[in-house]
Amino acid sequence: MATRSTIEWTEVTWNPVTGCTKISHGCKHCYAERMARRLRAMGVHKYRDGFSVRTHEDSLDEPTRWRQPRLVFVNSMSDLFHQSVPTSFIETVFEVMDRASQHTFQVLTKRPGRVAQLNRRLRWAPNIWLGTSIESERWLGRLERLGETGARTKFLSLEPLLGPLPNLPLQGIDWVIVGGESGPGARPMEAEWVRDIRDNCLDNDVPFFFKQWGGAFKKRAGRMLDGRAWNQMPALEGG
């Protein structure tokens, strides 16, 4: 079933895959890993193996049963393009997203290299958005690999933002999300890093979404930047 999400830039989450492994320093305090362990302790069957990568065939058809159009974050508790997810399963997920054309699917990965490798095997329907996470300059290569894919709407999730990204290339990018790290041990984010990215987006007519300042008490820190909330998004298909 759909899980209503508290993530500001989506509406519901859909997790046909759960579990992941750390791939870069942005993963250090992974919220999904903490949540998976909590759900396992609560006896939730889907997380009986904790944060080990598992595919869930019984979850595949869920979006086809949702009548009202929704923004759907795909695999908030995993990465669809993790090396342990079979190619055939990824193809099936794409087939489901294509069939459930009333929804807009937001696929976010730290592994755009694998997406590029599989690109010709995947049907990029217009309702499938693809984003990649970039937490610092060290991982700017992910942006180049994102550009090698056939996704019609491409976005960047700069969260947790762990360093400045001056002159971030935005050609071919349709949306930018920025957020600070939250939870135990959260690493700080500088306001000037955020302003620089926002101004870059404004200069290039790229929708900018500021998710949160983060920190140990993220609700207290809020998500206002220079006196306003930034909730810009790409136009939905048919919108």
Residue fraction in strands: 15-25%
- The overall strand count is 10
Report helical residue fraction.
10-25%
Please name the CATH topology: TIM Barrel
Task: Work out the count of structural domains.
Answer: 1
Shape, principal axes of CA atoms: globular
Low-confidence stretches: none
H/E element string?
EEEHEEHEHEHEEHEH
**Number of helical segments with 4 or more residues:** 6
- From the 3D coordinates, which CATH architecture would you assign? Alpha-Beta Barrel
**Rg estimate, integer Å:** 17 Å
- Overall mean confidence score, pLDDT: 96
Judged by helices, strands and strand pairing, the structural class is alpha/beta
- Distance separating the two termini: 26 Å
The description of the largest β-sheet is: 8 strands, mixed
Q: Going across the major beta sheet, what is the strand order?
A: 1-2-5-6-7-8-9-10
Question: Regarding CATH, which class?
Answer: Alpha Beta
Oligomeric organization of the protein chains: single chain
